[in-house]
């Protein structure tokens, strides 16, 4: 009850701070060149796309991604959008990642670079056929297998989900606490974030448990961060106490 009370008293401060423009920037948007949508690797001549590049409408990713996983996710988004299969591809990737988490053997296979590329491609092809994955997902996973990138599929899947969420007008808000946020507090916080966004956008609240923050709450929302964790407060207090005191004032 005491913990729930502290959450209840914190939410109004979260709302007030999130509505201000003085929050710290969590990350910057970096413009990067993306992989082409036909899944062609720069070091390969093989083309894994089944779509014709001629006279196709140009599709842009809703959020700029960076890094290798971001490039792969962006390429997959463009290919899936052209095939009008964004939701299906997202669902298939989620299923695949869940399967790797449940099966240590499968997970090890995905990470083992000692497995020859041809063996990886053959195994992935059979898995996709048995699971009846779409051609877009199948071709993409074959590319990852051929390039030795299967070990990054979980990260790529998360990046792809970020893109599909942005495409649907959804904004992810990550709430970090020591214990699960009570239902009433979760609803209140979500309603507050929704009010900030306004119509046309939808808040997708994700709870994260992290004992290392010691208590309190941390909210990451778009490019804003509200940190009311005990860990951060303790560090601030420590810095304050270490500052020399001027008695001559």
UniProtKB/TrEMBL annotation:
It is found in: Membrane. GO terms for biological process: proton motive force-driven mitochondrial ATP synthesis. GO terms for cellular component: membrane; mitochondrion. GO terms for molecular function: proton-transporting ATP synthase activity, rotational mechanism. Coiled coil: none annotated. Keywords: ATP synthesis, Hydrogen ion transport, Ion transport, Membrane, Transport. Pfam families: OSCP (PF00213). SUPFAM superfamilies: N-terminal domain of the delta subunit of the F1F0-ATP synthase. PANTHER family: ATP SYNTHASE DELTA CHAIN (PTHR11910). F-type ATPases have 2 components, CF(1) - the catalytic core - and CF(0) - the membrane proton channel. CF(1) has five subunits: alpha(3), beta(3), gamma(1), delta(1), epsilon(1). CF(0) has three main subunits: a, b and c. HAMAP family: ATP_synth_delta_bact. Belongs to the ATPase delta chain family. This is H(+)-transporting two-sector ATPase.
């Amino acid at each position: 009850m005491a913990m729930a009370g502290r959450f209840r008293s914190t939410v109004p401060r979260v709302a007030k701070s999130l509505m201000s423009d003085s929050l710290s920037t969590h990350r910057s948007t970096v413009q990067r060149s993306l992989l082409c949508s036909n899944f062609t690797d720069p070091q390969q001549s093989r083309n894994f796309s089944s779509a014709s590049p001629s006279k196709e409408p140009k599709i842009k990713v809703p959020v700029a991604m960076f890094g290798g996983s971001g490039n792969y996710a962006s390429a997959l988004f463009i290919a899936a959008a052209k095939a009008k299969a964004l939701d299906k591809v997202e669902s298939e990737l989620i299923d695949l990642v869940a399967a790797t988490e449940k099966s240590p053997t499968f997970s090890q296979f995905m990470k083992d670079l000692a497995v020859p590329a041809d063996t990886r491609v053959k195994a992935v092809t059979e898995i996709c056929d048995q699971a009846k994955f779409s051609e877009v997902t199948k071709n993409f996973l074959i590319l990852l297998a051929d390039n030795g990138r299967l070990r990054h599929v979980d990260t790529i899947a998360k990046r792809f989900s970020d893109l599909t969420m942005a495409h649907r007008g959804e904004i992810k808000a990550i709430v970090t606490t020591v214990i699960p946020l009570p239902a009433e507090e979760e609803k209140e916080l979500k309603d507050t974030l929704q009010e900030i966004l306004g119509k046309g956008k939808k808040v997708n609240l994700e709870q994260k448990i992290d004992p290392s923050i010691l208590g309190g709450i941390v909210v990451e929302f778009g490019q804003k961060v509200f940190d009311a964790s005990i860990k951060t407060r303790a560090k601030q207090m420590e810095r304050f106490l270490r500052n020399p005191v001027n008695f001559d004032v």
